[in-house]
Amino acid sequence: MVTTPQEPVYVIGAGPGGLAVAATLRARGVRAVVLERSDAVGASWRGHYDRLRLHTTRRLSALPGLRIPRSYGRWVARADVVRYLETYAETHELDVVTGVEVHRIDPGEDGGWVLHATGGRRLTGRAVVVATGFNHTPRVPSWPGRDTYAGELVHAREYRNPERYAGKDVLVAGIGNTGAEIAADLAGGGAARVRIAVRTVPHIVRRTTAGWASQRNGILMRRLPARLVDLLGTGMNRLAVPDLSAHGLPRPDTGLATRARAGAIPVQDVGLIDAVKAGTVEVVAAVESFDGDEVVLADGSRIAPDAVIAATGYRRGLEPLLGHLDALDERGRPVVSGARSPRHAPGLYFIGFSNPISGMLREIALDAERIARRIARTR
Fold it and tell me: Tens digits of per-residue pLDDT, 40-92?
């Protein structure tokens, strides 16, 4: 009797989520093919700014089946994350096909899924795991006057290091983790003046307190009621973080858990507090519009920086791929995650589309195991 090999599981994206799922599937005897539109694994990490380090500890950031080397230190540098992902794919002998972009996913006629990809490819798989990443498509607000702004305006994705901004007046728009870290990097890297535009005051936390990583607090807090976490977070914040109100950065008026569940994780301090206290990073109102070579702020003031770096986040960019499947919410994010599939789309899974206070890589590792178990049970 001749047996027909079972169709593979296709994993879209060779970042941490895609590699983790492929490895856990392979460990269960399920063939997984990873499709990556760039020419290498970890494309997003390769493009991040030089200074970046994981905000989560080495021990709590490893993917299933391979520890991160101790030599990389407690807070792993961007370049070492890339090395780890390369080693991970090699160690698990993953089937990664680069240079292939999937444009659309459709249900198959007899179950399974059909992927339409680069070069007219039509690939059929028993299941699909979408792992294209949380930081996929740079988002720059449609500020009035943006298109005719006479100064330099770039998204944070284009920032690498402070060298090109030496001696310049720079405005960083946005005070998430990326904006805060870039502002501190610029302040210590030779920029003549650095300002950071703030629309919503963030929660700022120390990366560690007496050796205890804030990530561990995040893991514990995910199990507690939001109201209790808000109270605990306020108390801890007052003990660990100085009041920066005199410098234009008051304490937030909403709780840490309440803010996190709305999608805004706290900012881990990697130099911003000291820079704000020293005046090397100045806090200003949010950007409202552009006028010629000036930036108009929410308080009505006008400034004329040499460059504006928009640390304004990313879109998931999933609409062209599967917007027709009713699998996304109003913000363009998957309606489910982990081992769950949309009710009307069995066999479609998502990983890496949240940024929890417990750590993205930790949650990716957990979700990869859950997804692999579910797929292995349904063959």
Answer: 999 999 999 999 999 999 999 999 999 999 999 999 999 999 999 999 999 99
354 neighbors 341 (Cβ within 8 angstroms): no
Residue pair 181/51 in contact by the 8 Å Cβ criterion: yes
Token pair, residue 145, equals: 């006057």
Q: How far is CA 50 from the centre of its chain?
A: 16
Q: Determine the 3-state secondary structure of 7 from DSSP.
A: coil
Compute the distance between CA of residue 9 and CA of residue 127 in angstroms, rounded to an integer: 5
Count of C-beta atoms within a 10 Å radius of residue 89: 23
Rounded distance between C-alpha atoms, residue 35 and residue 14, angstroms:
7
Nearest-angstrom CA–CA distance, 149 and 293:
6
Q: Is 5 helix (H, G, I), strand (E, B) or coil?
A: coil
Among candidate residues 60, 49, 247, 84, the one with its CA nearest the CA of residue 157: 49
Residues contacting residue 331 through CB under 8 Å, at least 6 positions apart: none
Binning the chain into helix, strand and coil, the percentages to the nearest 5 are: 30, 25, 45
Q: What is the pLDDT of residues 158-177, one digit of tens each?
A: 999 999 999 999 999 999 99
